[in-house]
Amino acid sequence: MRISDVGDGLMGRLIAAYGPEGALGQVRQGRLDPCFVDEMTSGRSRPPDVDRHLRAWQARLQAADPLADLDEGERLGARLIVPGDLEWPTQLDDLGPERPVALWLRGDADLRFSCLRSVAMVGSRAATPYGAHVSAEMSADLSEGGWSVISGGAYGVDAAAHRGALAGSASSIAVLACGIDIVYPAANHDLFAAVRRKGVIVSECPPGVRPTRPRFLIRNRVIAALARGTVVVEAALRSGALNTAAHAVALHRHLAAVPGPVTSEMSAGCHRLIRRAEAVCVTSARDVIELVGAIGGDLAPEPRGPVVPRDRLDEETRAVLEAVPARSGAGPATIAVAAGVDLATVLSRLGALAAAGYVERSDRGWRLRRIARNER
């Protein structure tokens, strides 16, 4: 974790080929297996500079102190998990050679269990009031439905998503672009403390590592990989949230986007994702659950308008009712022709409709009662 950058694909391939101990042994010797080097450089349009990577790994190895890192983690109440551990989320394997070498965790929740039903909620740091409201409300509803919410712990949509999730019953997961001991942004200190109590904070960086712009972008792949699907709440055309969305697509995860005002630059990225059919348009937590949930088990009911009493009438009775005029009356024969039914049916249905308060007699025949006119 100390000698290579996060998401270092070359180190990932070296570990996959020789195991962690074998990879570290080659770095210590200052010589990589020639077969591995040939495989990495032959026939590639842009082969990695293996010698440069090896020199950088060796330089960092001199300053690495894994025992000190473990002691610092223990002091913080953190734990270190590696592939194969019970708490390791196996969906991270989808990242291939860019899979994290290991993860530092702080918090009471079990990471693997929390990610079984989880949604990533991402968006702009400079969120509008609309974006913050949607993020918090949607996350709270997801949490109440038993879905963990994963985000990056930043300002704006991230922070609103964590706060919303903490208001529900499920866990909230914050994936950092810095060491587990660093609170960034500092203003979210209390929020991170709340996440640790009810969820878990995740980092692939060793303690003491400061956040940088590249680390934020590389971190986004972990957010996308952990979750069953990603929701982009707000995003400008140049936004880190769109980077997370691209990782979700590459990993064949579900991707959704929330529409916003057409005049808002903060929603332009969401609208582009929807327009290009890269993301599904969602407007509520139940839309999200239907998208990412189990087939048949998490189907959201189709939204409907309010049910009025006339909706419960059978087809012939409704046809007769529709044929009754609102103001001037009409005789049964006229109503029968308009409704397309026989006279006997009209007479029986008019009696039932009158008893139910829908129609009444007038000097000119049958007409709707005022209450029925309002329902029309």
Q: Can you characterise this structure?
A:
46% of the residues lie in helices and 11% in strands. Helix 6 (129-144) runs parallel beside helix 7 (157-166). It is α/β, with parallel strands linked by helices. The longest helix is centred in the N-terminal third of the chain and has 21 residues, at 9-29. The protein is elongated and about 105 Å long. Residues 80-291 form the Smf/DprA SLOG domain. Belongs to the DprA/Smf family. It comes from Sphaerisporangium rhizosphaerae. This is DNA-processing protein DprA.
Give the C-level CATH assignment of the largest domain.
Answer: Alpha Beta
Low-confidence stretches: none
Strand content: 5-15%
User: How many strands, what sense, and barrel or not for the largest sheet?
Assistant: 9 strands, mixed
Output the structural class: alpha/beta
Shape: elongated
- Mean pLDDT equals 91
What CATH architecture label of the largest domain applies? 3-Layer(aba) Sandwich
- Spell the H/E element sequence: HHHHEEHEHEHEHEHEHEHEHHHHEEH
Keywords:
Arc Repressor Mutant, subunit A; DprA; two-stranded antiparallel ribbon; 16 helices; 376 residues; Rossmann fold; alpha/beta; 9-stranded mixed beta sheet; DNA-processing protein DprA
Could you give a short description of this structure?
The protein has 376 residues and is α/β, with parallel strands linked by helices. It contains 16 helices and 11 strands.
Question: Topology of this protein?
Answer:
Blueprint (H helix, E strand, L loop, with lengths): L8 H21 L4 H8 L8 H14 L2 H11 L2 E3 L21 E4 L4 H5 L2 E5 L6 H16 L3 E4 L5 H10 L5 E4 L13 H10 L1 E4 L9 H14 L2 E4 L7 H11 L3 E4 L10 H8 L4 E2 L3 H8 L22 H9 L8 H8 L3 H13 L3 E4 L2 E4 L1 H6 L1
Parallel strand pairs: 3-4, 3-7, 4-5, 5-6, 7-8, 8-9
Antiparallel strand pairs: 1-2, 2-6, 10-11
Helix pairs in contact: 6-7, 6-12, 7-8, 9-10, 13-14, 13-15, 14-15
